[in-house]
Amino acid sequence: MDSMSSMSMQMTFYWGKASEILFKGWPGTQTGMYILALIVVFALAMLVEWLSYLEFIKYGWHRVTVGLVQTFKHGIRVGLLYLVMLAVMTFNVGVFIAAVAGHTVGFLFFGSRVFS
Q1: C-alpha closest to that of 56 among 96, 94, 110
Q2: What sections of the chain are H helices per DSSP?
Q3: DSSP letter assigned to residue 20
Q4: pTM above 0.70?
Q5: Burial 44-62 (b: 16+ CB within 10 A, else e)
C-alpha cells in the first residue's frame, strides 16, 4: 500500500515538458523528446481523422468482405482514438493542444470540402 500512496497523478491542467505520455519515462525531461511526443500525438489525431473519412471499398465487393474491411478500419480507428485520449489524460496543455490541432487539421484536409 505504501507504493500506491507515493505515486501521484496530475489532476489539473499544467504546462511543462516534464510529463509521461503513453509510456513510462517517455518523453522524459528533454525538450526535443517532448516536442517529438507532441508531434506523435498530433499525427495520431490526424490519422484518426483520415481513417474516419477514408473510403476504399471497391464497387462489386462481396458484402462480407465490405463488412470485414469496415470493421477492421473501425477497430484501428477506435484504438488510435483511445491512444489520443490517454495522451490527453496526462493533463498536459501542450498535449491537449496537439491533439485538438491534429483533429482540426485532419478534418480540414480529409473531412471538409476545402481540398476535395
Answers
A1: 110
A2: 2-6, 31-53, 63-88, 93-110
A3: E
A4: yes
A5: bbbbbbbbbeeeeeeeeee
Contact 39, 116 (CB under 8 A): no
31 is written with which cell numbers? 525538450
Quick: pLDDT tens for 30-42.
888 999 999 999 9
Read off the C-alpha cell for 15.
Answer: 504546462
Which residue type does 83 have?
L
Phi, psi of 28 (to 5 degrees): 85, -155
For the record, the C-alpha cell of 47 comes out as 490519422
Nearest to 16 by CA among 94, 88, 85: 94
